Amino acid sequence: MTTGPAGLTRTTETREQGVAHAARGGAAGRLRGLLRKEFLQIGRDPSSIAIAFLLPAILLLIFGYGVSLDARNVPVALVVEAPNADTAGFTARFAQSPYFRPLPFATIQQADRAMSARLVQGIVWLRADFSRQLQAGGAPIGVIVNGVDANDARIIEGYVQQIWIAWIAARAEEKGLPGPMPISVQLRVWFNPSVSSRDYLVPGLIAIIMTLTGALLTAMVIAREWERGTMEALMVTRVSLREILIAKLVPYFVLGMGGMAGSVAMAVWLFGVPLLGSIVVLAASSSLFLLAALGMGLLISSFARNQFVAGQIAIIATFLPAFILSGFLFDIGSMPVPIQLVTHLIAARYFVAILQTVFLAGDVWRVILPNMAALAIMAVVFLGAARLTARKRLD
Amino acid sequence: MWRRILALVAKELLAVLKDAKSRVVLIGPPLIQLVVFGYAATFDLNHVPFSVLNHDRSAASRELVARFAGSPAFQQMGALDSEHGIPELIDGRDAALVLVIDRRFTRDLALHRPARVQLVVDGRNSNTALLILGYANTIVTDFSRDWMHDHGGQAPPAVLDMRARYNPPLNSQWFIVPGIVALLTQVVTLLVVALTVAREREAGTFDQLLVTPMRLLDILLGKSLPGLLIGVLEATVIVLAAVWWFGVPLRGGLLPLYLGLLFFVISVTGIGLMISSLAVTQQQALLGAFLFMVPSIILSGFATPIANMPAPIQKLTLVNPMRYFLVVLRSVFLEGGTVQSLLPQYWPMALIAALSLLAAGWLFRRRVY
């Protein structure tokens, strides 16, 4: 009972002030009133707060642990037709490798059946005359991998190759011969020496999750006002469209930045991803990205004018393109050129590049500045388009 | 009874297809996405930019560089004069790989001492880094073998004879495009089903439906059949595109494929109806659809193998129908899978379908009366 009249008086005051300072302070007063309305609306329907804070936390938790390209303990069938000291030296390396879980099979037919039943991912086959051919040189080691998952197959082939190179080098050393491989390759992997996919996937995941959050937060807010008829009520007031859009943007921007801060904290403290760059760069690029993502949501919302269609567009236009075209998982440089051009339309693409660099490499301005400029352009374009689409008109 | 259900189905289909925006949304984007994603979602490396720091500058080292430059996986971006240039190249993403050839490369080769080559790789994208290392290792190994052969050295005692079953060229498009069938079918079916009831609730027309002579079961059937129909049609179009446009081999029969599709679409419909029955507003329904769809795609094995996930998350994927349908699709397309060999994938989907439909019915009864 007490809040009601108090709120009422305040509104009256605001209105009086608005009338009194119509020439100068009116716009600020109107905007303040609208902002207050949006914040109250968010406070009453906890689903927006859930989208901003709970959704990123849950998704990051599941994906951070669930998405991994590191093959470990891959089951492989070992078929050794005539076991002896030569073959034992080779197979022992599979048992010691963290990448493989070798399972012995007596015949190639049995191993084949196991691969058809998806019990093993590959077969390593040493034929009966392996030892004899080893003396002559060029003894074949049969390696058959299940090629359905081509990426996995290629990584497994790479691991087998490493084992083979190490094995022949060790054999040559034992016998005091010059190494059969005249070249020794020395590897230096920068930024991520352990080649752990989590360190590179988690920063990218933050970009994907914030794309979702940004679009979900705003995709329906204007469509809802149209559907409920409150947009028409707003239109007859002195409030300008720009003010409506700003009032819709600010609260969700605050929520989105909160969700972003939570995600970065989880990445650093829960997943142990190194953060080599500065917080300032991170905050600045996140703000630009959120403006672009929220702007896209507002555009969808004011284009659709109907929550059903707005929801459908939000699902189709945000998550899948960000997932597949952002370079978070699939290397953009390897895509065909026309598709590479399409990726320039995806805001997440720029944010993924910034996040991966800021987290793992530091403040590399040559990467950060062009991508931030692109994000700024996208933010302006989306917000401008939303402003143009949301005209004050009735159909 | 069937006439009533059919009438409702016709009404639902009209509601979806009459609205111009909704019609465009359901037909256009999935087709565009199929083409764009089919080409974009590749793990194969093409034209990876690399640079060379060649301290040796002899014929042998130039031959090694030429092999890198000639491989379709790599594309040379100039050469370096000193170590100082490397950080700038890698930091700025101008090169993902720098090949550093030792000053004594040719001399060591001639003396049968290990000739040193250093590979500096950008590890920001660990998967690309691993693949670059694999490609580079293959090139160096081939070079070594040929050099030994030409200079009378000893052949290695054993050689690898590597083959890939089902997908000999290791073309990752053959892996991803069948996956897109499941991806887009799930998105479209969920879109049609999850928001329908919430929309009627918000518009107040759901109450009108309830006072018609239709039973609750009829309403549920009428609400789910359009999603089923649209999902199966959408999947058919994508399968055709996979075969005719992308040239993915379809080695198995259509029966095992469509049996899996049917179970999958029914289970997605059941889950969509569950979301629909729980949501009061369309915003909540949308949130629910997202909350199911996003994890179900990421944890399905579509892009990253389930085997790489930690054990508790692997258990979580057991309730995800997409996980099973992906196996069905890839098996039928590439391995020539049969109904019998795919039984272990069918029954969990059938179980999920039955349970989710029962749960949706129960939830509706509770929310409605």
Description:
The complex is a heterodimer of chains A (395) and B (369). Helices cover 68% and strands 9% of the residues of chain A. Chain A has 395 residues and is an alpha/beta fold. Chain A has 2 domains: 30-66 and 196-389, no CATH class; 74-174, abc type-2 transporter like domain (abc type-2 transporter like fold, 3-Layer(aba) Sandwich), CATH 3.40.1710.10. In chain A, strands 2-1-3-4 form a 4-stranded mixed β-sheet, with helices on both faces. In chain A, strand 1, helix 4 (85-96) and strand 2 (100-105) form a beta-alpha-beta unit. In chain A, helix 9 runs parallel beside helix 12 (279-304). The longest helix of chain A has 29 residues, at 241-269. The two termini of chain A are 40 Å apart. The model of chain A is unreliable at 1-24 (pLDDT under 50). Chain B is α/β, with parallel strands linked by helices. Chain B folds into 2 domains: 2-41 and 171-368, no CATH class; 48-150, abc type-2 transporter like domain (abc type-2 transporter like fold). Helix content of chain B is 66%, strand content 9%. Chain B contains 15 helices and 5 strands. Chain B has helices at 2-18, 20-40, 59-70, 85-91, 105-110, 126-150, 173-194, 196-203, 205-210, 216-244, 254-278, 282-298, 311-316, 321-335, 343-368, and strands at 48-54, 74-79, 97-101, 115-122, 158-165. A 4-stranded mixed β-sheet of chain B has the order 2-1-3-4, with helices on both faces. In chain B, helix 3 (59-70) links the parallel strand 1 (48-54) and strand 2. The longest helix of chain B has 29 residues, at 216-244. The two termini of chain B are 22 Å apart. Classes of the chains: A alpha/beta (395), B alpha/beta (369). At the A-B interface, helix 3, helix 6, strand 4, helix 7 and strand 5 of A face helix 2, strand 4, helix 6, strand 5 and helix 7 of B.
